[in-house]
């Protein structure tokens, strides 16, 4: 009895349950979230409707070494300020599920739409990874993105993938294992803006929550109250009212303006439109051929005109130079010089040179 207990105890002690890390996939519509979801979880997934809606939400599991992940796929969003049922569901999932990790999947061709969501997600302060998917299509269009620059800007890992070919999966898995809290660059970059000074740090997230409250969506407000807690929520409302009452204007509108300004700058510095090398080479070839053609036409025109006017033409000039040089250097100073000279220039007569080959044929 005693030894059986010991054995059982040992088994329990060595097989501790693996960590379950909750990952939520978020991103614009049609960017490859579901392809990445399947890439990570395989085919054993659970699909259900979000309560009270027909919006489908998929859940699956993934094991990497000892770590077990639960992965949740969400409907596409244009922004985290919801204007549609799909967008509202995505926000509700983010706030209700309290994920350990967020993976933003993005279409590398649409950097501005991507970074709008990134700038909203980083406010949540949840470790996240940005996946720049569809790199194949971006490359075809000559779009190059400074992934490292984006990574530094938000303090998040940025991974490039071609999900349909499974490219970048390894890098994504390694990024998931090495995430850290992101940094929201907005308050630092725009520290002088009154609205930033008024709301920064009042709640977490502060600016995004202000924007959510302004939507007057009862369900979302209730979920937000649960997420922030009553204290943070009332502080945030109070600050907004104070700001408005002091005559500074609509804080939510101004947050939107500051965010847009940041995005304009970010897109300008992280997106490079690469000049297509193939087109450049074709262009280079074309320039060379056009230059040669123009040069040929000019020489032809000079030659024709020179013959008519009995003045030196490029060919007579060239021949004179060649004749003089060769005649001088192929003089009979060395063995065979005369022979070479007569083969190249012909025999010298009173009228100049005439070719040996022609003479022999004639
Ligand atoms: N060329 C290319 N196509 C891709 C890539 N990843 C996904 N796609 C295609 O993009 C389309 C959309 O993929 P989904 O995974 O359904 O996109 P989604 O983000 O889940 O879309 P929603 O759920 O509607 O928001 C599909 O036709 C995919 O085959 C990629 O890396 N390269
Ligand atoms: Mg999908």
Task: Give a verbal description of the structure.
The chain is of the alpha/beta class and 362 residues long. The chain has four domains: 16-184, P-loop containing nucleotide triphosphate hydrolases (Rossmann fold); 186-270, no CATH class; 277-303; 312-362, no CATH class. It contains 17 helices and eleven strands. It has helices spanning 2-14, 33-41, 85-97, 111-121, 135-140, 147-154, 169-176, 186-189, 194-199, 207-214, 218-228, 230-245, 251-270, 277-309, 314-329, 337-345, 356-361; strands spanning 20-27, 45-49, 56-64, 67-73, 101-107, 128-133, 143-145, 158-160, 271-273, 347-349, 352-354. The strands form three sheets. Strands 2-3-4-1-5-6-8 form a seven-stranded mixed sheet, with helices on both faces. Strands 7-9 form a two-stranded antiparallel ribbon. Strand 10 and strand 11 (352-354) form a beta hairpin. Helix 3 (85-97) packs parallel to helix 11 (218-228) and helix 10 (207-214) crosses helix 13. Mean pLDDT is 87; it is low at 1-16. Magnesium ion is lined by residues 33-34, 73.
């Amino acid at each position: 009895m005693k030894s059986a207990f010991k054995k059982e105890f040992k088994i329990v002690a060595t097989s501790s349950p693996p960590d379950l890390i909750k990952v939520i996939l978020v991103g614009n519509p049609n960017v490859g979230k579901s392809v990445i979801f399947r890439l990570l979880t395989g085919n054993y997934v659970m699909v259900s409707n979000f309560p009270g809606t027909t919006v489908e939400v998929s859940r699956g599991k993934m094991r990497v070494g000892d770590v077990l992940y639960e992965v949740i796929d969400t409907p596409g969003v244009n922004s985290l300020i919801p204007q549609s049922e799909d967008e509202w569901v995505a926000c509700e999932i983010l706030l209700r599920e309290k994920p350990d990790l967020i993976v933003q999947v993005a279409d590398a061709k649409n950097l501005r739409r991507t970074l709008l969501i990134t700038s909203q997600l980083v406010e949540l302060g949840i470790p996240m990874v940005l996946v720049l998917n569809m790199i194949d299509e971006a490359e075809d269009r000559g779009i190059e993105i400074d992934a490292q620059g984006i990574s530094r800007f938000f303090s998040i890992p940025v991974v490039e993938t071609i999900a349909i070919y499974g490219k970048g999966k390894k890098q994504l898995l390694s990024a998931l294992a090495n995430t850290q809290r992101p940094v929201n660059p907005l308050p630092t970059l725009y520290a002088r803006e009154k609205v930033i000074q008024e709301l920064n740090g009042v709640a977490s997230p502060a600016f995004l929550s202000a924007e959510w409250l302004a939507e007057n969506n009862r369900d979302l407000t209730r979920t937000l109250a649960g997420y922030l807690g009553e204290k943070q929520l009332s502080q945030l409302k109070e600050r907004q009212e104070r700001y408005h009452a002091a005559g500074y204007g609509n804080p939510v509108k101004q947050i939107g303006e500051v965010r847009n300004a940041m995005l304009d700058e970010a897109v300008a510095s992280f997106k490079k439109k690469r000049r297509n090398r193939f087109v450049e080479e074709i262009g280079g070839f074309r320039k060379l051929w056009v230059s040669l053609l123009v040069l040929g036409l000019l020489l032809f025109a000079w030659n024709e005109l020179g013959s008519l006017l009995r003045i030196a033409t490029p060919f007579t000039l060239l021949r004179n130079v060649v004749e003089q040089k060769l005649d001088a250097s192929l003089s009979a100073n060395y063995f065979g010089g005369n022979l070479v000279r007569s083969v190249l220039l012909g025999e010298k007569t009173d009228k100049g040179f005439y070719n040996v080959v022609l003479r022999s044929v004639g």
